[in-house]
Design goal:
By secondary structure, this protein is an alpha+beta fold. It has 5 helices and 3 strands.
C-alpha cells in the first residue's frame, strides 16, 4: 500500500467514525466532542468536587463564585467522550447561575441542552451534574465554616 492509498483508507475510516458519532451525539454533541469547552483544572478555584460514577468514570468540577453566582466552571474526566461532552455542557449551563439555580439543575436539563445523546450514556449527564452539585455544596459549607470562624 502506498502513501496515497493509506491516506485514503485513513480518511475513509475517519469519515465513517464521524458519521456514526454525529448520528449518536447529534450536531451539538458532536461539535462539543471535537471542540471541548471548559475542560481543564481551574487555577484558584474556590471549590472542587470529585465523583466516581457507576460506570467507573471519574468527573471533577471546579468553580468560582462571586456574589452568589457561578462565574467560572471547569471540569476534567478520565471517562469516555460522553462524560466529556456532559461535563462541558454542565459547566456551560452553570455559568452565570445562582447557587440555588445550579442546585436545581438536573441531568435531564443537560441532556435537553445537548439534544441527542445515546441512552446508554445518559448516566454521564447525571454524574456531571452530581459532581457540580457536590462542588456547590462544598463551597457553601466552606462559607458557613468561614462565618463561624469570624463570629
Amino acid at each position: 500500500m502506498n502513501d496515497q492509498e493509506f491516506d485514503a483508507l485513513v480518511n475513509k475510516i475517519q469519515n465513517e467514525v464521524f458519521t456514526e458519532a454525529k448520528s449518536a451525539l447529534g450536531e451539538k454533541g458532536f461539535d462539543r466532542w471535537r471542540n471541548p469547552k471548559f475542560c481543564g483544572v481551574m487555577e484558584n478555584a474556590q471549590s472542587h468536587a470529585r465523583m466516581k460514577g457507576s460506570c467507573g468514570d471519574t468527573m471533577q468540577m471546579f468553580l468560582s463564585v462571586d456574589d452568589g453566582r457561578v462565574t467560572q466552571v471547569s471540569y476534567i474526566t478520565d471517562g469516555c467522550s460522553s462524560s466529556s461532552i456532559a461535563g462541558s455542557f454542565t459547566a456551560e449551563l452553570a455559568m452565570g447561575r445562582t447557587l440555588t439555580e445550579v442546585l436545581d439543575m438536573t441531568g435531564a436539563d443537560v441532556l435537553k441542552e445537548i439534544g441527542t445523546f445515546p441512552e446508554s450514556e445518559e448516566h454521564c449527564a447525571y454524574l456531571a451534574v452530581g459532581t457540580l452539585h457536590e462542588a456547590v455544596n462544598t463551597f457553601m459549607a466552606a462559607q458557613v465554616q468561614g462565618e463561624k470562624q469570624r463570629a
